[in-house]
Amino acid sequence: MHVVILGSSAGGGLPQWNCRCPICTLARTEPHRVRPRTQSSIAISPDGTDWLLVNASPDIRQQLNQTPALHPRKGLRHSPIRAVLLTNGDVDHVAGLLTLREGQLFSLYATAGILDSVNANRVFDVMAEGVVTRSPIRLDEAFEPLPGLRVTLFSVPGKVPLWLEDETMQIGAETETTVGAMIEAGGRRLAYVPGCARVTDGLRARIGGADALLFDGTVLHDDDMIRAGVGTKTGWRMGHVPMRGEGGSVEALADVPLGRRVFVHINNTNPVLIEDSPERRDVEAAGWTVAHDGLALSL
C-alpha cells in the first residue's frame, strides 16, 4: 500500500493567511525550522496506479501539482484519482471538492450523515450528476473504493462541522459525522483518524495492530490557541484531543500495539511544528512522527 500525506496542517494551513503568531512567522521567515504546510488530506493506492483521495482540502490543486504520482498520464484529460472519501464535513476536508469539478469521473464516498451535509449545499452540484457518483457508506461495513483496497469506516468522538453547529450540538458524541477509516491492502492495515475529540477504549481496540496510524495532532495542549493569544477555543471545543495533558493521545495510545505513529491535521499554533523545539523532541521520543506535506509511507 502506497500512502502520501498531501496536506498535514489543520484548517487554515501554515502559515495561515492572516496570522502572525510565532509559528506562522517562522514558517514565513525560517522555513528550515518550520515547514509550510497545506490543509489536511492524504492519497492511498494499492498499486501506485489508481488512487483514493481521503478528504479534499481547499489546497487540493496545489497538493496534486506537487505530487507527480497524481498527475494526468494520458490523453488530453485524465486523473489517476478514481475515488474520494470524506471523514467529516469540515470545510478543510470538503472545500477541495469544488476544484474537482472539471468533468472528471470519480466516485465520492462518505457516511450518509456526511453526504447529507454536502448534498444540502447546492454549490457542490458543480460535481455534476452522472460524472461524480455519490455513494453512502454504512459504518463498520467494509467496501472497496478501488480494486485491492478495502476500507471500513468507524465512528470516533467528534462534533458536527463548524458551519453546522447549533444549540443541539454535542461535543464528543460518536455519530456518523466524524469517522475514522481502517484501510487495508496486501495484508497491511492503515488507520486514519484526522479528527478525534477523545481516545476511548473502543478506539484503542479498533486501531490496535495497525501497521500505521495517522492521528489527530491538532493541538499539543488543550489551550494551545489561548496560550498563543490568537483565540479562545480549546481543543475540546473544536473537537480535537490534545497530544499531551489530561486525556492526551500520546499517553492514551502508548500501550496500543501499532507500527508507525504519525500526527496529522496539526494546527498552526502547535509548537511541535518547530523542528528544533523541546515539544517536537518530546513527541518524537514517545515514538511519534510529526507529519509534513509529501511524507510518503510504503506499507
From TrEMBL:
Pathway: Cofactor biosynthesis; pyrroloquinoline quinone biosynthesis. This is Coenzyme PQQ synthesis protein B. SUPFAM superfamilies: Metallo-hydrolase/oxidoreductase. Keywords: PQQ biosynthesis, Transport. May be involved in the transport of PQQ or its precursor to the periplasm. Belongs to the PqqB family. Residues 51-266 form the Metallo-beta-lactamase domain. The keyword Membrane does not apply. InterPro entries: Metallo-B-lactamas, PQQ_synth_PqqB, RibonucZ/Hydroxyglut_hydro. Transmembrane segments: none annotated. Signal peptide: none annotated.
